[in-house]
Amino acid sequence: MASGIARKLSAFLDIPHLISKTLIRVSPGGAPNSLFPSSPSHPTEGILESLALPTGRNLTYRTYGPANGTPIFYLHGSPSSSLEAGALVPHLSSRNIRIIALNRPGFGQSSQQPKRTITDHARDVLAIADYLGIQRFRVIGLSGGGPYSLACAYAVPAERLAGVGVIAGVAPWKLNPTKGIDWYGRMRFYLNRYFSWAYNFAYLRRLVDDKFKSLSLEERREFWRNDVYSTAISVGEKDKLALQDKEVVEEIVDCTMEAFESGCEGPMQDSVMLIGDWDFQLEDIEFENVKLYFGTEDRSTPVHGAREMQKIIKGAKLVEYDGDGHWSILDNRGAEILDDFVKDD
User: Fold this and answer.
1) How far apart are CA 44 and CA 47, in angstroms?
2) Which of 88, 153, 254, 280 lies in the 20 to 30 Å Cα band around 223?
3) AB hydrolase-1 domain: from which residue to which, for each copy (predicted)?
4) Neighbours of 215 (CB within 10 A)
């Protein structure tokens, strides 16, 4: 699962409490990309693979489900990683679905991409699709991955797309995405929107990275566990129930740890882009098979934003799950979402 865009680091960094709310979660360094072999014909399920692009960047990804299954590209939340898609594994084989989950630039072992845009990631999806020999596919994004999924609806040639989905996704700023969010969540959005210039200071990024590198692996994991538990204070009842599951919490921690293996720059860049002005307009999406899946008790990306997006995106369908929230939707409704998303096949 994906967590909120910003979390409290003031206890570690000793900077003003309010500004610290804009910072994003960080975790340990990892191994070089060269350690991950690419095997497009039969990639090993759940194992991190790497593709070297002509530009010199590396993209990392994981595949889940049967190799001949209906291909769905899964775009993770922020901050999170391709491990997030593992939550859907129990539902894949019986539905003959194959998931390809990418790590965005700067997340995990995917190379940084300075000055990237949201629609740039659509080209990354196409690069992996071409590499794996996938001509036609679906794309679905969770939370912070939602805008990137919509960017695919805008930028990927229609003949390559079978469907586009958004699960509990971030809505554009002009649609008032903070309506229904608690006070702390609203402040995180506003600080990311109006104090994003703080992320441009290399000193700040280095301070965050160095602080976490000084911690042991278990200390970092414990920090993120506590972060998840603090999040549970202001969520709905189904989200609270989901976050009482220790296995779910550890999966969230795993995703967070991988997200920041290369440092905090990529996720910081991501948060600014999601809350900033996107480089495409929803009105300009011509692909008409877009489906939005939202819980009515989501207090991180409230259903208000989805209702507004449905009004703008031509032909968009909105499915609302009563009582579900940001954390519970994938666990409680994952099978239903997949069934609806591929039912035209």
Assistant:
1) 6
2) 88
3) 71-332
4) 16
Please tell me the distance from the alpha carbon of residue 142 to that of residue 262, in angstroms, as a whole number.
Answer: 22
According to DSSP, the residues that pair with 58 across neighbouring strands are: 52
Q: Please state, in angstroms and rounded to a whole number, the distance separating the CA atoms of residues 278 and 146.
A: 12
Cα-to-chain-centroid distance, residue 277:
18
Count CB-CB contacts under 10 A for residue 182.
14
Extract the tokens encoding 318.
Answer: 């909105």
Exposed/middle/buried for residue 94 (C-beta within 10 Å: 0-12, 13-18, 19+): exposed
Domain-wise residue ranges, the chain: 10-341
At residue 29, the pLDDT reads 29
CATH number of this structure's domain 10-341, picked from the four choices 3.40.50.1820, 1.10.260.40, 1.10.760.10, 1.20.1250.20:
3.40.50.1820
Give which of 78, 22, 77, 81 is closest to 200, Cα–Cα: 22
∠153-106-193 over CA atoms, to 5°?
70
- Supply angle C-alpha 339, 126, 254, rounded to 5: 65
Cα torsion angle, 136, 273, 81, 89, sign: negative
CA proximity to 137, closest of 87, 98, 103: 98
What type of residue is 166? V
Span 12-17, average pLDDT = 33
* Helix, strand or coil, per DSSP, at residue 166: strand
* DSSP character at residue 298: -
Residue 197 has pLDDT above 90, yes or no: no
SS3 content of the chain, % helix, strand, coil (to 5): 45, 15, 40
Q: In what order do the strands lie in the sheet with 317-321?
A: 49-52, 58-64, 97-102, 70-75, 137-142, 161-167, 290-295, 317-321
200 CB-near residues (< 8 Å, 6+ apart): none
Name which of 262, 296, 294 is nearest 112 in CA terms: 262
Model pLDDT for residues 34-70, shown as the tens digit of each residue:
333 334 555 667 889 999 999 999 999 999 999 999 9
